[in-house]
Request: fold
Amino acid sequence: MKFWDQFRKGFTCLAPMEGVTDIAFRQVIASAARPDIFFTEFTNVNSYSSEKGRHDALARLKFEPSEQPIVAQIWGKTPEMFTETVLAAKELGFKAVDINMGCPDRHVVATGGGSGLIRTPETAVNIIRAAKEIPNISISVKTRLGYSRIEEWRDWLSCILNEKPEALTVHLRTKKEMSKVGAHYELIPDIVALKNELSPETKLIINGDILSAVDAQKYAELGADGIMIGRGVFQNPFCFEREPQAHDRSELIGLMLYHLELYEKYDLHPYDPLKHFYKIYINNFPGASDIRAQLMQTRSIAEAREIIAKL
Reply:
């Protein structure tokens, strides 16, 4: 069975997010409400292919067996480096690799990677083919509707679908739109039709402004196979619950303490990036903003624990 064939229509994914979906945060989300599929944060194929950057690349690809099924997300612009990195992912135990062709970050785009590949479709095709050179590992793609104009979507997605990826995640915005406008849900039926015409076996995953696993059925009825939630976890770490429950302050604080514990366990550093997560846990209760302000002044996990202990 192919990796993506094991999931029933309406499956859920935690989106790959740079500086967010590391080994610690994935386990926090798993303890809150587990998605069907995890994705790692981004790994640059150039980093893996260089002796200097390989340590960082391998750290990004670290996962626990309990996190399976998990997909390695990789990015770059050099086809042969994708072959090398996919092989490494396979040897590390991954059953699937996802190629990022949608990241809008200006530094990524400047290198020709991420959504920069939308402007070089021939390179994008060569990357998919290079990744597919490694047998017995699933290759998928995550991208956007286009670079500057929504109207680009048909030609661009056709380019990818003609290569028959096992799955295609479409963030329903262009690179230019970033996340400044609403996702273009109205295009889903047309994208489904195009996928069914060019590559019917490809699983279609919808991404953009999705906040709850409850939405999975809605998009399944429109023809999508699965959904992907990214920023929604910052609003609700329990967003993958199929039947939403009420959660009190103590549960959120418990998740935060678990996150701190995992950050130490895996020797993740530096400390400051951890502060970005505090708004997830310290929110929507009296005095939360003041506590967050105190946490933002901390310089260590020990100091954060002291503040939380007072609650």
